[in-house]
């Protein structure tokens, strides 16, 4: 009997998380990968990644998700961090306008270090902090539309949309480009 095409194939995609310090990058990743949240997390310096698997069309799709682990504080996110990435989450904090204003700089950096086919998702994190909101959903959407980004608001604290955000990125990458793992 003929083997069905694509059966047993595995895929591995690198995804990078970028954005200003303290927007919640590490917590988004720990919420997604381990369902953990840290109120007073102190990032260890040095790049860290977690590998997560999901099933798409009966295939195992793995995402190697990288966190800057505090390096952005020293403007030390290097080209190596971006190398080979198929997708990125550009994160800001909805309760801190300066982190939203920084997205333009992160986009510049992304354009310098990666090609235009990289899947880009704008993430407005900390949407649980509604009373402290400084950036409206409309502003987030408008920026995403202008720059051709996907857009979602999340909360690593109460889990809102965290899984969805990562899964949209991974599915979208899978649908567009794929790299076969040997
Ligand atoms: P990073 O520097 O971007 O990796 O940010 P962290 O993940 O270390 O988070 C910075 C601070 O924001 C920590 O005190 C977290 O507890 C807090 N934080 C992260 N995500 C959320 C969220 O969704 N809601 C709230 N209220 N706080 C968050």
What attributes does this structure have?
GTPase activity; lipoprotein; binds guanosine-5'-diphosphate; 6 helices; prenylation; 182 residues; alpha/beta
Account of the protein in words:
- With 182 residues, the protein is α/β, with parallel strands linked by helices.
- Helix content is 31%, strand content 26%.
- It has six helices and six strands; from the N terminus they run βαββαβααβαβα.
- The protein has helices at 25-34, 79-82, 97-101, 103-113, 137-147, 162-176, and strands at residues 10-19, 48-56, 59-67, 85-93, 119-125, 150-153.
- It has a six-stranded mixed sheet with strand order 2-3-1-4-5-6, sandwiched between helices.
- The chain starts with 9 loop residues before the first strand and ends in a 6-residue tail after the last helix.
- The mean pLDDT is 88.
- Residues 21-27, 38-41, 43, 125-126, 128-129, 155-157 line the site of guanosine-5'-diphosphate.
What pattern of helices and strands is seen along the backbone?
EHEEHEHHEHEH
Shape: globular
Distance between the termini: 24 Å
Mean pLDDT: 88
Which structural category fits the helices and strands?
A: alpha/beta
**E-strand count:** 6
Task: Count the DSSP helices.
Answer: 6
The biggest beta sheet, please?
6 strands, mixed
**CA radius of gyration:** 16 Å
Query: Order of strands across the widest beta sheet?
Result: 2-3-1-4-5-6
> What low-confidence regions span 5 or more consecutive residues with pLDDT below 50?
none
Any ligands, ions or cofactors bound here, and which? Answer: guanosine-5'-diphosphate
Portion in beta strands: 25-35%
Helix percentage: 25-40%
């Amino acid at each position: 009997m003929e083997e069905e095409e694509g059966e047993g194939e595995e895929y591995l995609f690198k995804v990078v998380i970028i954005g200003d310090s303290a927007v919640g990058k590490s917590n988004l990743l720990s919420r997604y990968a381990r369902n953990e949240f840290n109120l007073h997390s102190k990032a260890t310096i040095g790049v860290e990644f977690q590998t997560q698997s999901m099933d798409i069309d009966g295939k195992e799709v793995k995402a190697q998700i990288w966190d800057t682990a505090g390096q952005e504080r020293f403007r030390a996110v290097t080209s190596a961090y971006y190398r080979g990435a198929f997708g990125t989450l550009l994160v800001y904090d909805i309760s801190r306008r300066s982190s939203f204003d920084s997205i333009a700089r992160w986009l510049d950096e992304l354009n310098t270090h990666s090609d235009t086919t990289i899947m880009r998702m704008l993430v407005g994190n900390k949407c649980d902090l509604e009373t402290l909101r400084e950036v409206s959903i409309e502003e987030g959407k408008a920026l995403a539309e202008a720059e051709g980004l996907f857009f979602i608001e999340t909360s690593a604290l109460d889990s809102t949309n965290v899984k969805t955000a990562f899964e949209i990125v991974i599915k979208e990458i899978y649908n567009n480009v794929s790299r076969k793992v040997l």
